[in-house]
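Friendly challenge for the regulars: who can give me the C-alpha cells for this chain first? No prize, just bragging rights.
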Amino acid sequence: MLTRMRLILLATIFLAALVADAPAQSAGASTAAREPTKPSRPFIVLTAQSLADLERKLQPENKVEDLIGGEGMQLRVAVQHDKTRPTATAELHDASDDVYYVLEGTATLTLGGKLDAPREVEPGEWRSPRIIGGQTFEIVKGDLIVVPRGTPHHRITVAGKEFSMILIKVFAEPLRAAAPKPDPKSKTQKP
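First reply, four minutes later:
Bragging rights claimed.
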C-alpha cells in the first residue's frame, strides 16, 4: 500500500517538475551547445517509515507539514492531518491544481458546481460557506483525487475522527518570495 502511495507521489512530482522545467529549458536555448540542466533542488526520498512517523507527529491536532515547496517552486507537497474540521469552507483556486492522496480516515468531498457567495481571501484564492450543485463523494484511505484549478471543492471530515492525506499542489507560476515585513525596531522614518 505504501509502495503504491510512494509511486503515485513520485510520479506526480516528476510530472510537475517536467511541466515546471519546460519553459525554463526552452527559454535558455541559444546557438551555443546545449548541455543538460542541473538539478534546481536536492531530491527527496521518504521511506514508508518516515512518512508513518510524520503522520503520527501531526496527529494530536489539525496540522500540516510541508515536504516540498516554497519560493521559486511550482509545486508544494505536504502531509495534512485533521482531527476535526467543523468550520471547513468551500474553496476554489484560480492558479493551482490540488492532488489528494488519502492516508487514513474518511471524509466527504464535494466537487464542481458553484461557490455560494464567494469572497476572495487573497488574489486567486476564493472561499465560500458552501457549494451549490456539486457532486459529493466519500473519500477513504487509498483514494487519489485530482482537483483542477477553477474547480470548487469542499472537504468535511467526520467530527472526532482522524483524517490524514498527502496534498500536492501544482501552481501555474513559481511562488514569489514573501514581501519582507517591516521591522518594528527600525528607526528609519518615512519622508
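Confidence is low (pLDDT under 50) at residues 13-27. The chain has one domain: 2-22+44-171. Your move, everyone else.
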